[in-house]
Structure formats: structure tokens, C-alpha cells
Design goal:
Blueprint (H helix, E strand, L loop, with lengths): L3 E7 L4 E5 L2 E11 L5 E9 H10 L5 E14 L5 E14 L13 E3 L2
Parallel strand pairs: 4-6
Antiparallel strand pairs: 1-3, 1-5, 2-3, 3-4, 5-6, 6-7
Length: 112
Amino acid sequence: MNQYLGIGNLTKDPLLTEREENTYCNFTVAVNNRNDDTTFVEVVSYGKQAVACNNRLIKGSQVCFKGIPLVRAYIDNEGKPRANLKVRAKEIDFISRLKPRDEATAGAVSEA
């Protein structure tokens, strides 16, 4: 099984979506690589983990995440080949910059 492990900062506030019995949270993390390049990784979490991410994270929050990578290749509007990396999070560690009402609670949240 492939796994992706990344540490970075959220590029904007997370977006929580609730549809029927499914709850999920999407956010993008900027991961700095050793050669000073930045990879933007879309992260999606589900269930209780999604609610925790929405309640605790804001733009700029630093997170460590581990999950299943999904890579999608496509051609953009200008005809150039592009790729998109999305990770279905299995574990997320909140490292810094929690929302003010949750400053006292920090730690890891695993997918339930």
C-alpha cells in the first residue's frame, strides 16, 4: 500500500461539507521540499476527523498528515499536462496555530 507523509501549512481555512450521512473536510497544505520547491497537497478527511480539522485548523496552521495518495493527471485549459496530488488522510497531527477556542486541546486525530 502506498502512503504519503507530509508536514506543512494550510493555505486557507478548511472547508467542511456534510451530505446525507457523509461528513468530510477539504484543505490544501503547502509542503516545502528540500530543494526549496513547494508542493501543494489537497487533503481530505472524513467523519470525526473532519469535524476536528474544521474546529481546530485555520489558514497558516501547521499539520503533519499521513494517508493514501491519489494522483490525477490531466491537460489544463492551455493544453499543458498537469498533475494533482490528493491525500485521503488516515492520521493528522495538529502542530500549531489552533483556533482560539481550542488552544487547550492539541494532538493527533486518527480516522474513525
